[in-house]
């Protein structure tokens, strides 16, 4: 266990002493009966008031309650074990969404007296979560290690560095090697939101830290199951004691309904499937589209499946988007407040679904639009 994360143990001890410790039980719901550890019990913990959560098309019944009450389907246990392994961490915890995972993790682990170093381009869920902590928030310039380093010199008992792995609106990688180095030097805890790198980059899609060879250096991974895995949900992978603490304290885990078991099973199915062919196709498509766009004259820093075509002005970006739409290309303009003012852009996300023909045709449209709007 990392010494800088042992503070959670005292908190867990205190929860236990007060008889307030919570544990999740894994069960299987079948109408009015819940099966927990091979014991069939009459279920008085469901919120499926009308008894209609069973479906003809979905093989399993929805659990219709919080995971700490009666909603903890056995499939969570299997999925969480696999996700922990996928991230080379001790344990993991599934949340209903990636947004809720960020809110749940950040607002539970970080306290008022702590210092947060947050990249200026971090996702809205991170920003909202940071506000909930009441801690001092120090925003560092995007991917700027010097700025991060100097801001880490502030004296605080605990310091947290929060970054995305691949930035959602710019498609660039975090300078993770340098972030890890500086965080280690200044004894800061790293929370990484790898929603866009998970399942897409690194060996077997293990994510951005694997891509940079710093897997063991990340303290808390947050990710989404709704992007690279093509399923739904969010999760955190970290040390066992942190997961225990989240189960006991994280409001977006405790006070909400569990993810339906058919979605958990769907994630498991995807996780167990061979995704390498699709990943190869994705990167082939990224290469084809990126090189084509660069040849046209577009300038961008991204080397990933998220490609921003920076337009600048919001009005032009809107018109650009409309033009693409008219020509059969669906790539939307992203404007303030999602991105800074005058940094409006067309955000392209590449998928393995695209064929060579799709990309070639789109490139023709991107060339026409670049000339029409004077972007190149
Ligand atoms: C960086 C980042 N983090 C978290 C999320 C939220 O994930 P989810 O869609 O599973 O709530 C997103 C999705 O937009 C994202 O881009």
Helix content: 25-40%
On the 0 to 100 scale, the average pLDDT is: 92
In the CATH scheme, the class of the largest domain would be Alpha Beta
CATH architecture of the largest domain: 3-Layer(aba) Sandwich
User: How many helix segments?
Assistant: 13
- Low-pLDDT stretches: none
Extended strand count: 13
The gross shape turns out to be globular
Task: Describe the strand arrangement of the main beta sheet, using strand numbers.
Answer: 4-10-9-8-7-5-6
What count of domains describes the coordinates? 2
Q: Which molecules other than protein and nucleic acid are bound? A: pyridoxal-5'-phosphate
Q: What is the CATH superfamily label of the largest domain?
A: Type I PLP-dependent aspartate aminotransferase-like (Major domain)
Structural class category = alpha/beta
Proportion of β residues? 15-25%
Radius of gyration: 22 Å
Separation of termini?
Answer: 52 Å
Order of helices and strands: HEEEHEHEHEHEHEHEEHHHHEHEEH
**Sheet bearing the most strands, described?**
7 strands, mixed
By CATH, the topology of the largest domain is Aspartate Aminotransferase, domain 2
Could you characterize what this model shows?
With 376 residues, the protein is α/β, with parallel strands linked by helices. It folds into 2 domains: 219 residues, Type I PLP-dependent aspartate aminotransferase-like (Major domain) (Aspartate Aminotransferase, domain 2, 3-Layer(aba) Sandwich), CATH 3.40.640; 97 residues, Aspartate Aminotransferase, domain 1, CATH 3.90.1150.10. It is built from 13 helices and 13 strands. The strands form 3 sheets. The chain has a 7-stranded mixed beta sheet, with helices on both faces. The longest helix has 21 residues.
């Amino acid at each position: 266990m990392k010494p800088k994360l042992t503070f959670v143990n005292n908190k867990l001890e205190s929860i236990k002493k007060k008889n307030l410790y919570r544990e999740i039980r894994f069960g299987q719901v079948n109408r009015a009966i819940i099966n927990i550890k091979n014991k069939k019990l009459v279920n008085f913990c469901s919120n499926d008031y009308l008894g209609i959560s069973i479906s003809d098309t979905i093989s399993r019944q929805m659990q219709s309650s919080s995971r700490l009450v009666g909603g903890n389907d056995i499939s969570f246990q299997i999925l969480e074990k696999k996700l922990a392994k996928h991230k080379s961490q001790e344990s993991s915890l599934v949340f209903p969404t990636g947004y809720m995972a960020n809110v749940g993790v950040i607002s539970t682990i970080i306290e008022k007296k702590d210092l947060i170093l947050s990249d200026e381009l971090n996702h809205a869920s991170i920003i909202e979560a940071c506000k909930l902590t009441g801690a001092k928030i120090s925003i560092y310039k995007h991917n700027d290690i010097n700025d991060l380093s100097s801001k880490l010199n502030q004296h605080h008992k605990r310091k947290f560095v929060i970054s995305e792995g691949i930035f959602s609106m710019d498609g660039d990688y975090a300078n993770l090697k340098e972030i890890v180095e500086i965080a280690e030097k200044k004894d800061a805890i790293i929370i990484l939101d790898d929603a866009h790198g998970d399942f897409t980059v690194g060996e077997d899609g293990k994510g951005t830290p694997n891509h940079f060879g710093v897997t063991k250096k990340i303290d808390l991974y947050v990710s989404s199951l709704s992007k690279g895995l093509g399923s739904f949900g969010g999760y955190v992978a970290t040390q066992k004691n942190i997961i225990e603490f989240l189960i006991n304290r994280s409001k977006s885990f405790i006070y909400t309904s569990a993810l339906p078991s058919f979605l958990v099973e769907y994630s498991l199915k995807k996780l167990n499937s061979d995704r390498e062919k699709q990943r190869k196709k994705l990167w082939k498509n990224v290469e084809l589209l990126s090189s084509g766009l660069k040849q046209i004259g577009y300038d961008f820093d991204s080397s990933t499946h998220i490609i921003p075509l920076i337009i600048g002005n919001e009005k032009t970006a809107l018109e650009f988007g409309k033009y693409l739409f008219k020509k059969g290309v669906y790539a939307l303009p992203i404007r303030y407040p999602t991105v800074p003012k005058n940094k409006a852009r067309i955000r392209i996300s590449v998928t393995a679904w695209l064929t060579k023909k799709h990309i070639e045709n789109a490139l023709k449209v991107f060339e026409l639009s670049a000339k029409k709007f004077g972007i190149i």
